Amino acid sequence: MVTLYSASNQSFDRMETKLFNIGVAFAVMWVVANTPMSQVLRLAMPAYLAALALLIAVALVGDVRNGARRWLDLGVISLQPSELMKIALPLALAWYFDRYESTLRLRNFVIAAALFVLPVLLILRQPDLGTALLIASSGCFVLFLAGLPWKIIFALGAAGVAALPLAWSVMHDYQRTRVMILLDPSQDPLGAGYHTIQSTIAVGSGGWFGKGWLQGTQTHLDFLPERTTDFIFAVYSEEFGLLGNAMLLLMFLLVIARGLVITLNAPTVFTRLVAGSVTLTFATYAFVNMGMVSGILPVVGVPLPLISYGGTALVSAFFGFGLLMSISTNRKLIKS
Amino acid sequence: MPQFVELKNLEGERSEFRRRTAIAAIFVLVLFGLLLARFVFLQVMKHEYYYTQAEANRISLVPIVPNRGLILDRHGTVLAHNFTAYTLEINPTVVRDLDATIESLSQLIEIAPKDRRRFKRLLDESRKLGAIPIRTRLSEAEIARFAANRYRFPGVEINARLFRRYPNGTLASHVVGYIGRINQKDMETLEADGRLSNYRGSEHIGKTGLEQMYERELHGTTGMEQVEVDSGGRAVRTLSRTPPVSGNNLQLHLDLRLQEAAEAAFGSRRGALVAIDPSTGGVLAFVSRPGFDPNLFIDGIDPTTWHELNTHPDRPMVNRALSGQYPPGSTYKPFMALAALELGRRTPQYAINDPGFFTLPGNSHQYRDWKPGGHGSVNLHQSIVISCDTYYYQLAFDLGIDTISNFMRQFGFGARTGVDLEGEAIGINPSQEWKQRRFRQKWYVGDTISIGIGQGYNVMTLLQMANATAIIANKGTVWRPHLVNLVQDATSRAQRAVLAQPLRRLDFKPDSWAVVQAAMIGVTTPGGTGHRAFADAKYIVGGKTGTSQVVAIKQGQKYDASRLDERHRDHALFIAYAPADNPTIALAVLVENAGGGGANAAPLARTVIDFFLFGKPVTPIDAPAIPGAAANGAASNGGAGAERN
């Protein structure tokens, strides 16, 4: 909140919206936390199929904004079905592995892979590389935790490395540019490299203790774009320094650790996989965003969980927490 | 026993799961450790470096806008170029009190309310940092006055900027088009194409004509300068510089002097003319009259002028040659004749008796010939020379609409030619299927009859007519008409041709072409409808007159131009190619509401062909030095000196 206040040039409008979003997010979390996991289990597959249908609809009749076909105009609201898929995919995969508990064969993994490759391809076509990769990784977490044999993991890893040149050849020009720029941001300092250079300067100039709240020069002199959303961490980092960053990392780690503990103690395959995926996806978001702002990852549109301005991201994060809480209470119910 | 195995499996799965969760946890720890290491690196080890960059001397990245490519005619005459002028610019991130600054500036330099309005608008629109112009084209005296007072105005500077200029004013304005300020819609398009970053610092983009069509060639690549800026926003020193790459020059097929002759021939009349080289498809002249002055648009046209241009009854902003759609009238007849010969439905010898009208079997409606009382016995040759309507009513009836429509498609009627300009109209090559789609009505035989003389549902663009005439002239080679001949690299002067191959060939019998060409020559020789205009020509011309109806004349009524509103009078049309034995030019001309084509359009064609064949000698192609070669500085060597017109 405090950082957003600074990042938005002390805009109270932004604060109001954010407060409202937090309210909504808490409400969502409360509802989800009080939904028994058996209900969630029942809803997993329908939710997945609905999200998939919406994605197909987007591919066919979606609105084109900024050159990408990501939105579905439903008259009153416009929906980005890939957001829905972020939640639905891990649930569906967990549901699937739950069904075949203890009779897992290689065949099951192939089917599960198909379940997540389909939406990922659809999102890639939009094109939305960032979201596609994140959804793919959340799917991978489930496969990994469900016990995908190590042999296959290594084989896939090797194949992935071998396929890199192929991936390079099918990437969009601007995506290639982003990767190239990561290697050398100065080659397009006005274009795609601009974000990275400016946010790196912001982070680096923060020093040990930061310049103090509202004192970030880099971020306040309009050098940094999107400073209330994906690049909010640059503002934070400039103003609170290494100490602030370390605190934030620690807090994220505490949340993740708690999530993993819930994961370990979850009673069923379904809850275990859901909890693990939610936690690891949360960690991925945090890592990718901070990595992008500090210039070790390419610029992809990923918000920093809990910190970035933007309602959807906040609500999905709290939705995840709701799931974790529900799993945690369920366990207690079963024990007692 | 199976239960036991399953239990054991479950236990195994459980411990495997624990192990994997632990691995994931370690993985997360490693990643976060990596982040922490990166933070330490940036914030502790490199802190001083970044702190200097961010705080003491802010690094500012200044885009250097590339020179926009020139547009030259076939002889190297400049149609669009750049000149450098000094602009007064304000950097709003540095200036605290904008209004007060502008107020005291206006005591040194004249700042009109118009300039203030534009500045405010740019300020609102601008998402980028950097200076925003408030006054352009400063005089020497104004520059001197400001220089003396510069210390009073931190964040205000004078910069040399490039401006586009169209030295020929309205001449060929519909071809060249104009550039205008980049608006929100342009930004979205650029962003979608991934070209937005190349437009940092750029304020203009091609909006119409060649400026729009060849935007990618003309714009060039934006350069960049990394400068240290002091707290007042002034540049202290340059750290690095990536030079901009100038846009490519366009060399047209268009001959500006021919264009000028053609436009002059129109005088105050409205209309269009397209001339094409039948051996390449290159457009030699492309006239739409009246035109407009593209210079008006460069700095943002003022609303009054814009309103005037758009509401003027003569509609100067409409490109009549490209998007105007007109019935071809009798200029359609040579193509009908080709269909008749090629499909074996007429021999050259076959003659009809023309009583002055045509009636459908069992129907009393008379389709009248333009000549009351008729032409008597008419064969195919005469039908073109004297433009006999009855002959073509009969022919259309015999061929039927499907045959006509399919045949005409080969000449490109009812389809875009694909010329290198945006906004081309399609025209209509009528067919049963088209009428069903458009009006949800079936086709009547009566519809077919007026198609035969280029009326009815038949409409075309002048470009299509000229292109089709070129196909007759070169006996069946179909080109995609194009304005740009060569794209030239501004620095290396390396050239590449835009189009070198024809689209397709129409393999008609040589006799079919010969008969129709002979008849078209007949049109411009004694006894032909276009004879008067070419009476003393020193070359042989193939042509065809046309007169196209604007309003339908009722049965039994006579067309009387003097009693009609001027805008309802017939359009005068003429198509031609010359010299007939080895054509180097094919053209179509239309004069709006001028009456008969022989008297009112053919003389225009005569002027253009005369000029093309016997005009001033052709000088070798040579692009002039590029005015204002450096984006900043080197200002005075550009400008008006480079015009040679």
Short description:
The complex is a heterodimer of chains A (336) and B (645). Chain A has 336 residues and is mostly helical.
Walk me through the topology.
The complex is a heterodimer of chains A (336) and B (645).
Chain A: H1 2-7, H2 12-33, H3 37-61, E1 63-65, E2 68-73, E3 78-79, H4 81-99, H5 106-124, H6 129-145, H7 150-170, H8 173-183, H9 193-206, H10 217-220, H11 232-265, H12 269-293, H13 311-335
Antiparallel strand pairs in A: 1-2, 2-3
Helix pairs in contact in A: 2-13, 3-4, 3-5, 4-5, 4-6, 4-12, 5-6, 6-12, 9-11, 11-12, 11-13, 12-13
Chain B: H1 2-45, H2 47-56, E1 58-64, E2 71-72, E3 78-90, H3 98-105, H4 113-125, E4 132-135, H5 140-149, E5 156-165, H6 173-176, E6 179-181, H7 184-192, E7 204-206, H8 209-213, H9 215-219, E8 223-229, E9 235-242, E10 249-252, H10 256-266, E11 271-276, E12 283-289, H11 303-311, H12 320-323, H13 333-342, E13 351-354, E14 357-359, E15 366-368, E16 376-379, H14 380-385, H15 389-399, H16 401-409, H17 432-439, H18 445-451, H19 462-473, E17 477-478, E18 484-488, E19 495-497, E20 504-505, H20 510-523, E21 542-548, E22 571-578, E23 585-591, H21 597-600, H22 602-614
Parallel strand pairs in B: 2-10
Antiparallel strand pairs in B: 1-8, 2-3, 3-4, 3-5, 6-7, 8-9, 10-18, 11-12, 11-23, 13-16, 14-15, 17-20, 18-19, 21-22, 22-23
